[in-house]
Amino acid sequence: MKAFRPAFNIIAILTILLAFPQQVHSQSPLANSSDPEEVGKRIVNNIVDRYFGWRYQKACTYYGALIFAEATGNPSITAQMEKGYEPYDLGKKKAHKGHVDYNVFGIWPLEMYRQTGKESYLNMGLYLADHEYESIREDGLTSLARFWVDDMYMVGSLQIQAYKATDKEVYLDRAALFLLTYVEELQRDNALFHHREDAPFFWGRGNGWAVAALTEILLVLPESHEHHKELLKAYRDMMKTLAQHQGEDGMWHQLIDDPESYPESSSTGMFLYGLISGLDQGWLPEEEYKSVIVSGWEALASYVNEKGEAMNVCIGTNAKNSKKHYLNRMKTDGNFHGQAAVLWAATAMHRYQKD
After folding, report:
1. d(Cα 83, Cα 121) in Å, to the nearest integer?
2. pTM above threshold 0.85
3. What pLDDT was estimated at residue 32?
């Protein structure tokens, strides 16, 4: 950075800084706590005061609230998620289907079923999981597959939650084959994923979806499964590369390999979910990764303000063959992509500290 010229009036400097406060990341007094339970509760309090909807980023957030509730032993959060789901349970609202971003809604009721045993939750979740595979490609994947890296979570997580709710291996096999196929198609030599084959950029949140999906399946996939070895390798290779690209402040950036792009909260939260879970499960060596997750979590927690909003969250992003397209994506506060990711990371961090 160039030094200020002596003639530059200090009043002018202050005027510029005050005119553009959104360019400065600051912590509020209430945002100083990095306790994962405190951070998670702040996020939950924020989302329950907002409209409960069906879109994928909201379903992922409600799922995050539910796993956080289970990890912290807080059934009142589960009850709040049930209350938000009630219009769908009563048939007053209908879930959408026919697109990977629609069907993933099913992870919300499936996790509620796992925690409460209410049959109607199971029925809705399995309906969407099975609908996803009504039409199957020759390679065994759902015909809804688009080969966007986002699909890894949208399809993978739904099938994994269906397996967790039923113990039926058909759902686990679907997820494992789907994720392995995407690894083979989109994971590059540096172990990161392109957003899409014709969008050759290492977009932060896109890679976050891949991390979260690989983490979700490895948490339940038996070592004896035919695809376990390959999926674990894809995961470990990716974690090694991510550790190398972590910023000095502990965050990861909008484009992972471009440190000039802005620090981004949803990708950071998703990466931490995978990294922390890896330490907790013994997939990663603690001496190599503990400092990565400690600095990452401290940084991410500081990006949650007193309102319970994750800050610096990239808005929804289409795949495009243009680096400028990704660099110019706006950042927002309280976007549900970030709310979900912070809840996932807070859950993993709470489990890790508890263990």
Report:
1. 13
2. yes
3. 61
Token code pair at residue 253: 């950036």
Place of tokens 């971003």: 101
Range of the domain at 306: 36-354
The CA-to-CA distance between both ends of the chain, in Å, stands at 44
Instruction: Please count the structural domains in the chain.
Output: 1
Q: What is the pLDDT of residues 15-46, one digit of tens each?
A: 433 343 333 343 443 446 899 999 999 999 99
Confidence (pLDDT) at 33 = 82
> Which stretches of the chain score pLDDT less than 50?
1-31
How many residues in total does the chain contain?
355
Asked if residue 49 is part of any domain, the answer here is yes
Closest CA to 159 of 130, 185, 134: 130
Using CA atoms, how far residue 188 sits from 155, 194, 261, in Å, is 21, 7, 21
- Tokens found for residue 109: 């009721």
Q: Is 243 exposed, middle or buried (0-12, 13-18, 19+ CB in 10 A)?
A: middle
Structure tokens at 197: 């084959």
